[in-house]
Amino acid sequence: MMLLLRWLSRWPLAWLHALGAVLGWLTWALSPSYRRRLAANASLAGVGAAERRRSIAEAGRLVAEVPWLWLMPEGERLGGRVRWQGESLIEEALAAGRGLLLLTPHLGSFEVAARAAAERFDKPITVLYRPARKAFLRRLEETARARPNMATAPATLAGVRQMLRALRRGEMVGLLPDQVPPEGQGVWAPFFGQPAYTMTLAVRLAQQTGAAIGLAWCERLAHGAGYSIHLAPLAEPLPADPADEAEAARVINASMEKAIRALPGQYLWGYNRYKSPRRLRAGEAA
Known about the structure:
By secondary structure, the protein is an alpha/beta fold. The protein is about 45% helix and about 15% strand. It has a domain of about 190 residues.
């Protein structure tokens, strides 16, 4: 498997994206449950047929570009492959010495966003992740993400403490807040009009550290031309009462909707966003 991934990592990005589009459509064709979930989730958001079709190919492109990104030679940088829009959000937070929590939905090339931020601003960023179940993939992702100014925090109590320390040092932290957290780690809040179990971790991190919060999403450009990273403030202010977790979750979800509506063809509509939370396992963050 590693030989195949290393071979693919040497392909031009445009070729990988072409392969990914085919894989995306094959997955859609072979999985009735995926087709139903994608159609149902996209319908809730009012996404039209053209953007739905695009999202099928883009989901495959997301997977196909992973070998290129993870196995990129150590000294190679994303550099000119990335364009920036709204980067003053990061510049101002870092200049003020505040930590910055960047919230990124399952939209576009979210793996690229953290790497690009670490390179562009030459400042540390810590990203929350759930380790892969397969051992070889777990080793690969840990090695691939260990880049200059990049750190990963597992979804455990130790990982939460790691993110708190990073924010208190005035560093950046990245989260995907549209993941379904384990039971007890979230509240039910509307997401495109339907209740979705929503993590409270992002708001708690900001409240405990005084960190700023912003949105970040990475648009995949056509024909392997690279990426465009967009940054924006939350859709509306968080509630003044820190105990109002339901209202805070509503604001976070509204902010995710704002980013997704800006680029609906690159959201993972097949993600099971409305599932019930699983039970918390020993050692996980609470």
